[in-house]
Amino acid sequence: MNREQKFLNELHSPYRFIACVFIGLLLTGCATFSQDGGLGDVKSVVQKHIKQEVVWPKSADEKTTISTRVDDILAKPISVDDAVQIALLNNKSLQSSLYDLGIAESDIVQAGRLPNPKFSMFYARNNGEYKIEQALTFNIFSLVTMPKVLEIERQYFEKTKQDVALNVLRLAYQTRVVYFNAISTHQQLDYSLQVKTSAEASAELAKRMKRAGNWNSLELAREQGFLADAVLGVLEAKNQQIRAHEALSRLLGVSVEKIKLQKRLPDLPKTTVELMAFEQGAFEQRLDLQAMRLETQNLASRLGLTKVTRFINVFEIGPARVLEGRRGDDYKKGVDLSFELPLFDWGGAKVARAEASYMQAVNRTAQMLIDTQSEIRVAHNHYLASYEIAKQYRDEIVPLRKKVLDENQLRYNGMLVSPFELFSSARAQVDSVNTYIKKLHAFWLAEVGLQMSMVASVNLIEGNE
Question: Fewest CB within a 10 Å sphere: which of 16, 294, 415, 443?
Fold first, then answer.
């Protein structure tokens, strides 16, 4: 039996009772790990905004299952929803952020455990005379503060869940944007190639006309300039396509060669959504507002803890025994008590700082409520404007350009217009279609932005805050 065990066995019954109380409080105050590490709460938040599944694979078998599932989705041309699902399954940055849940939950468990008791000993000897002091102390002040500390850590865990949910939705938002970018650049490249083909035919005809003496050098240079611009447009379109496809590849966590996209952007919807549907649920569903509320609650709890500990941060008590004299003499038994004396620092500065931090958060929350209303109105207005612009191109401008081309085709067949006028009309028609693709792309980005305005501010979603 070592010295510490012997010391504990020699304690008087009151001290053994105190020890039992400490042990009982320790056992009842212990927090334990949850079954899913908080992922279930994250899923419940995310599913209010998107329908894709969030997983947290930890074992090798789970990762293999996810890899097989991703390969199955990639076996066919993927839709925007497929792209989001692959990103949520396979994006390593997201998987990394999920471990924030484990870190925060570990802090809760740690906060629910008392610090270990402290054993101290003083030993001195001189000519057969001894002085031995032994003490086993417990920081009972931690019992007073434990409920408040646990409350703080649980609030932080809830905030972590909100942050992780925001990371999930941010990834979904970015994936949708990049997916639409990739398809748009693919369509724009196709039409750029059509413009180039038309310009090549026009330039070749211009050369023949020049050789025949029917055209001058200025007219030939004009057609060659159209061809040079068309070649440049193809090069730029190819560059944009590569960049967009690589950006999508990074978010999905798969190589570009495995990604097969649909050939065109989705058509415009028949109707638009009303602003009222977004404003009604904004204050309940916006994650940045929820996170700000949790932060304010956490600061309020910390303010309470600061007020409790403003005078004394440590208060330790425990059984002690002292031997003064010969080695065989009896020990004097007593209690060891230690705490901090508030002689110089009365904690006023700490309390003032905590109060200022709390009021700062209160005012930031109030401003965020004002900003949220404005952001949703702006996003909805941009959505409606983008819809009307794309609809105008689809229903008016593109059909008119097509009609002009058809009329010039008839006149060319009747030898009433030159082939160059026909080529010019063809280029204008292709340009109108290409512009419509851009406007349709802009609409779908605006639609994504409107949906994400229900999640958080655009700056926060895009990582600018």
Answer: 415
Q: How many CB atoms lie within 10 A of CB 407?
A: 12
Can you tell me the distance from the alpha carbon of 170 to that of 410, in angstroms, rounded to the nearest whole number?
Answer: 53
CA distance 241 to 255: 15
Alpha carbon 67 to its chain's center: 22
Range(s) of the domain holding residue 300 = 266-310+353-465
> Do the Cβ atoms of 182 and 246 come closer than 8 Å?
no
Residue 453 is given by DSSP the state: T
Q: 142-146: long-range contacts at Cβ-Cβ below 8 A with a sequence spacing of 24 or more?
A: 142/114, 142/115, 143/25, 143/114, 144/308, 145/305, 145/308, 145/309, 146/29, 146/111, 146/112, 146/114
Whether 338 is covered by a domain: the verdict is: no
CB atoms within 10 A of CB 62: 12
What letter would DSSP give residue 258?
A: G
Fill in the amino acid letter for 10.
Answer: E
Domain assignment of residue 304, yes or no: yes
- CA 224 – CA 203 distance, rounded (Å): 5
- In-domain check, residue 432: yes
> By percentage, how much of the chain surpasses pLDDT 70?
69
Return the SS3 of 436: helix
pTM over 0.70? The answer is yes
Distance CA 426, CA 436 (A): 15
Count Cα atoms within 13 angstroms, Cβ side, for 311.
2
Number of folded domains in the chain?
A: 1
| pLDDT tens digits, 259-292 | 999 888 888 888 887 776 666 655 567 777 776 6
In a domain, 400, yes or no: yes
Question: Does the structure show a pLDDT above 60 at 315?
Answer: no
Q: How confident is the model at residue 155 (pLDDT cuts 50, 70, 90)?
A: confident
DSSP helix/strand/coil, 271: coil
